[in-house]
Structure formats: C-alpha cells, structure tokens
Design goal:
The chain contains twelve helices and five strands. The protein has 249 residues and is of the alpha/beta class.
C-alpha cells in the first residue's frame, strides 16, 4: 500500500512541484489543503502517514497551529516547509516538536531525503527506547530491534518469519503479535516494504534487470516481484526505472 502524504501549502505551484517529486518516489499525495480547519478535518478522516506544512499559510503563521494539533495528537509525523529561517520563527516552531524542517528554496533531494528519513525514524520510534525519556519497563523494544536488524541484514534472502522470531527468543505467533503492536505493521509487511525500497534503489542506481533484482531480493519469481512492486508503487519495476531516468511519469 502506498504511503499517503498531505501537503498543506497555499502556494499551488510549490505544492504541485512537491507532489510531482513525491509521486515519482511512489507516494500517494493529497494537496489543495490551505486552512487549519480543512487540514484538521482531512487528517482525522484520512490518517496520512506524513504531513508537510507550510508555516506561513494565508500570510499568517497558521501552519504552526496545525503543528500544535499534530503534536498534541502525537500519532502522525510532520515536517515544516518554509522560507522563514529567522530565530524568532524557529523558536516558535521548535515548541511544536516537528519531525523535520525544510527551508525554501529547496531541491528535490531535500524533499526526498527528509521524507524518507522521517518516515523511517517514525516507524521505528517504538523500538528505540534510548530516545525516550521514560524508563524501560520491558525488553520488547530491544528484541524487536534485533529482529529488524536481522531483516535488514538479510533483505537479499528469502526470509522466514520463524527465523526472525528466533532473534527475539519468542515463539513465532507471539513475535508476530508483539512486532505488529510496536511497529504498526506485521513482520510480513515490514519485510516486503524493505524489499521494495531496496528494489527502488537498485532500479535507480544500477543497471541490473528487473529479473536480476527480483533474484537478488529473494522473490520466488519475477512475476511475484512485479506484482508486489506494482501494488506498492502503482507501476511496474520497468516503468518505475523509466520514470526515474527520464523524470517523467
């Protein structure tokens, strides 16, 4: 499933530029959100995976109000995009504890890398106890982190859930339940997501054929790989490579 990103920006040309950048990376994007009221309403309905917020909405600092709302809800990561980098603005912004900050004018790589890092960090927030101020009352986060490390180190192989569960010393069914509770997705979904992300990198940065990439990532067949890739990104692997090479969808 594609991850949904909201762009809350009243400069439509900028919003469309960001949408094009993100859609080429396989994200689903919603824009034309220009007021606090509309933003809050749509966030509650659609539950996006990430929100990008222009601080200076409608010539006011309304974007910070949306950040305050998201900070209080504490269930969706958000990043500010703004041309205001003065100390006064930054002092107001930091109180809302954003997950990132992008300064205008930005380059496509600024958008891509910030979004990727924020989504990755947020997905792992429940298994990073050293970043939390609360005492560790059980070792579940540490065990899950071991499982995630095993998955990432073996992403090029066919990974059996029982093998991953063994890293945690839990029985498989218990591992699946605890992993899902802490990360918000099942181990199967996490493994597939990481494989697709790796495939995207291969397609962009190497000349390996789609079939070779499928083999490198431990898929049963090229057909299975292409079905999974298209479901995740909305296009075939070959089409994705063409888009990335030409810059056109």
């Amino acid at each position: 499933m594609k991850r949904l990103i909201f762009i809350i920006e009243d400069e439509l040309l900028i919003a469309h530029d960001i949408r094009q950048i993100l859609e080429q990376e396989g994200y689903e994007v919603m824009l034309n959100i220009m007021t606090v009221e509309k933003a809050v309403s749509l966030i509650e309905i659609h539950k996006p995976d990430l929100v990008l917020i222009d601080i200076n909405l409608n010539q006011q600092m309304d974007g910070i109000k949306i950040g305050q709302y998201l900070n209080n809800a504490d269930n969706i990561p958000y990043v500010y995009i703004t041309s205001y980098t003065d100390k006064l603005t930054l002092d107001e912004v930091k109180d809302t504890r954003p997950h990132g900050f992008i300064a205008k004018p930005f380059k496509p790589v600024d958008i891509v890398t910030t979004v990727s890092i924020v989504l990755s960090n947020y997905a792992h927030r429940a298994v990073e106890p050293v970043r939390d101020d609360t005492p560790v009352v059980n070792d579940a986060p540490f065990r899950i982190k071991n499982a995630i490390n095993y998955i990432n180190e073996n992403i090029g192989s066919r990974i059996e859930i029982s093998e991953v569960a063994a890293c945690t010393k839990w029985k498989t069914e218990h591992f699946i339940r605890i992993f899902t509770k802490h990360t918000g997705i099942t181990p199967y979904q996490y493994i597939l997501r990481r494989k697709i992300e790796k495939a995207m990198a291969y397609l962009e940065e190497t000349t390996l054929s789609s079939g070779d990439i499928a083999f490198e990532l431990g898929f049963e067949s090229y057909g299975n790989f292409n079905i999974a890739f298209k479901k995740a990104t909305g296009m075939t692997a070959d089409a994705y490579r063409k888009v990335k090479k030409t810059g056109r969808s």
